[in-house]
Amino acid sequence: MSELNLILIGPPGAGKGTQAERLQQDFGLPYLATGDMMRAAKEEDSDIGREVKEFVESGGLVPDGIVCKVLMARLDAEGDDGFILDGFPRTAGQADVLQDALQGRGRRITAALVFEVPDEKIVERLAGRRVCSKGHPYHVDHNLPKHEGVCDIDGTRLIQRDDDKPETIRKRLEVYHEQTEPLVERFEADGIVRRFDGTRPPAEVHDHIRATLAVLKLEEGL
Ligand code: AP5
To answer: Considering the entire predicted model, what is its pTM?
Structure first.
């Protein structure tokens, strides 16, 4: 194996998308975010679109069958030069699908980057988050765009996400602790977990990840 296959795990608002954007620039890896895929799917005028909309807007998880189908098709289309997966896997079933598919292609997850942020911090962060139509994240207090209300990267208008309301944030946190957090233990047993303090400023978290991945690349000859 010669590629860097990264998965990002953490509660909603832990900074996965913020760091993924930076890592994408550092390593030139394809970035696949199932949250973005599900938000695109929910806009479709179809039975699946309506089903996805219901789950995303209530803060629940979209059923594994739908997410895995969409994600695996995108992953296959990217070839085998590495990837950054943001928000997938989120359940034991999704982890099985991913690990089996990679194993069948002689590949594996290189590292699971785990972002740790306490629940009370998450609510404050997400209430202040603004995103553009492509999902680039900003914050009204500590991650401002250069021009108010406009994305620095693509110039589109910034809005608040439908699922960033306090009651939906609480539901998303509950789902994270019940269904996704147990995966950390599973990946720990595989020796691939690298933990990061997501309460540190974004640049500091980024430096820590880059240093960790530099060591990993040396150790694994990547
Ligand atoms: P998804 O879009 O993946 O949402 P999430 O995991 O809840 O994560 P977020 O995007 O909210 O947060 P983030 O960690 O990326 O934080 P960000 O960098 O934006 O999923 C949405 C929905 O889609 C799910 O609820 C589900 O319904 C469905 N779905 C998706 N994947 C699925 C799957 N695999 N299976 C089933 N359903 C699925 O940062 C947040 C804010 O904090 C920003 O304002 C940012 O500027 C700020 N910030 C970031 N880092 C820092 C820092 N270090 N210090 C201070 N502020 C910071």
So the answer is: 0.93
Judge if the beta carbon of residue 35 lies within 6 A of ligand 1: yes
Pocket lining: 88 vs ligand 1, CB cutoff 6 Å = yes
- Digit-coded pLDDT (tens) for 168-198: 999 999 999 999 999 999 999 999 999 999 9
Enumerate residues 6+ apart whose C-beta is below 8 A from 151. Answer: 132, 134, 136, 138, 145, 157, 158
**Does a structural domain hold residue 110?**
yes
Which of 39, 53, 130, 172 is the catalytic position? 172
Residue 105 is among the residues annotated as catalytic for this protein: no
In the structure encoding, which two tokens stand for residue 49, read together? 């679109």
Calculate Rg over the CA atoms of the chain: 17
Q: Which domain covers residue 10, as residue numbers?
A: 4-119+167-220
Count how many Cα atoms sit within 13 Å of the Cα of residue 134 in the half-sphere of its side chain: 12
Instruction: Answer yes or no: is 63 within a domain.
Output: yes
Q: Return the SS3 of 207.
A: helix
- Residue 189: what residue type? A
Place of tokens 């938000």: 39
Identified catalytic residue from 22, 74, 121, 161: 161
Span 127-176, pLDDT tens digits: 999 999 888 999 998 889 999 999 999 999 999 998 998 889 999 999 99
Quote the CA–CA distance of 15 and 180 in Å, as a whole number.
16
